[in-house]
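Standup notes, structure subgroup. Blocker cleared on the adenosine monophosphate input:
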Amino acid sequence: MIHFDNSYARLPDGFFARVDPTPVPAPRLLALNQPLADRLGLDADWLRGPEGVAMLSGNAMPEGAEPIAQAYAGHQFGGFVPQLGDGRAVLLGEVVGPDGARFDIQLKGSGRTPFSRQGDGRAWIGPVLREYAVSEFMAAMGVPTTRALAAVATGETVWRENGFPGGVLTRVAASHIRVGTFQFFAVRGDEARLASLTDHVIARHYPQATGPLSLLDHIVARQAETIAAWMALGFIHGVMNTDNMAVSGETIDYGPCAFMDGYHPDTVFSSIDHAGRYAWAQQPQIAVWNLAQLASCLIPLMGERDAAIEAATRSVHAFAPLYEAAWLRRFGEKLGLTGVAPVKDLAEGLLTLMARERADFTRVFAGLADGGARDEFTDPTAFDAWAEGWRRSDPDPALMAHANPRRIPRNHRIEAAIASAVAGDMAPFEHLFLAVTHPREDRADWADLARAPLPEQAVRQTFCGT
Ligand code: AMP
Ligand code: MG
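Run returned:
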C-alpha cells in the first residue's frame, strides 16, 4: 500500500501525458533501498513482495498511482529542442513522508511514451545500477540529489550497440521539474501555464519566495550550492543540458557522469562531449548559462520588460559570489579549515600541484588527515612545501574526515560490478554499494575499493546508455 497525493497530475492540461508503463516479461528485484523506503514511510517488505515488484517494474499500478510522462523542452549542448519530455520514464505519483516532505516516485526505463521519439523507452541494467550507486553515494555525502529506491531486471533484452538485460530504476526526487519544463511553456508563449508552473514550484520547493524574481533568486542560490558540492567531490555530471537541471537544486539525470580519478580541471568522460562543454571546471559557468535560460523564461511574468530583464540579470549574476562562498566553504572543510584561514590560496595551490601530476583527487584529500597524501605525488617536494604552510593554519581533522570520502564509486569499479550483474552475480554491486554509501567509514574488506585504478584499469570514457 502506498498513499499517493499527486499534485503535478492535478495541474491543468498540457503539463504531461497520461500513460501507463509498458509491462515486462519477468521482473526480478535487483536492489531495494531500505533506508530510503523508511524515510518515505513506505513498507519495504511490501515493496519486495509481488505487488511491490509489480509496481517497481511497471507491471501493475497500485491504487492511487496516476502515471504520467512530463513534458519539457531543453537546450542540448547549447542547441534548443522545443519538445523533449519523459521518453523513457513515467511519474507514478507523489508520496508525503512521515516528516511531511513530498517526493516524486518515478520509473525510469518503463517503456515508450508520447515523448519517446525514436527511442525504445527502455534502459538496461548498466545505467540503472550506475545511477543507483552514484546517486546514493551523493546522498550519503550530503549532496542534493535525486535518490534511488529500487532497481529491477525486466527479463527483456534491450538493444544498444549490443543486446543487454533490461532494467527499471525507481527514482525518487523532490520533483522532476527542470529548467526545460519552464522552457517548454516559454517557447510556446504560454504565459498562463508558465504562471501555473511558477506557482507550483514556489509552493512545492520555495514557499518563502514572493514571486517569479524571488523564485529565480532562490533557484540560483540552491544551484550554486549544488555545483560547489559536485566540484568538491571531483564529480562531472557530463550532460548539463537545461532539461537535466532540476529547479529543486537536486542533481538529476545521471548519465555519462563520473568522478575523476587523477585530477585535472579539463577532465571529460562523456563520449559525446567532444568540445568539453561539460568538463569539470566548466560546470559553474554552464550552470550560469542554464540559469540564464530559466531567467529568460520567467521575464514575461516579471512585469515591465526592461526592468524585468535588469532584475533577472542581476539575479543570475548573484550565482558567482554565492558559488565562490560555497566553494570556499567546501574546499575549506576538505582542508580542515574554517573562517579566516587562507582557504583560497591553499586550495588552489594544492589543486595546481595535483593537476601537474594528475594526482588522485579523492586519495589526496582523504590522505591529508593521515599523512597519506604525500604518497600520491611522484615528486613530493612541492607538496611538502605546500603542506608546511597548510599545517600552520591548524587544520581540524574532524572537518576533513567529514568532507573527504574514503571511497567514491570509481568508474572501473562500477563497470566491474555491472559486468558481474549482467552475468547474474549481484554480490560485487552490493559490496560496492555498501562501501560507497558509508563513504567516511573504514572496513578492512573495503580497503581495495579506495585504491586508484592502475593505468590499464582506468576508465576514460562513459556513455549515456540511452
Ligand atoms: P537524456 O539526455 O538522457 O536525459 O535524455 C534526453 C531526452 O531523450 C529525454 O527526452 C529522454 O526522455 C529521451 N530519451 C533518452 N533515452 C531514451 C529512450 N531509450 N527511449 C525514449 N526516449 C529516450
Ligand atoms: Mg534527461
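Discussed briefly. The CA atoms of residues 288 and 317 lie 8 Å apart.
Next: hand off to the docking folks.
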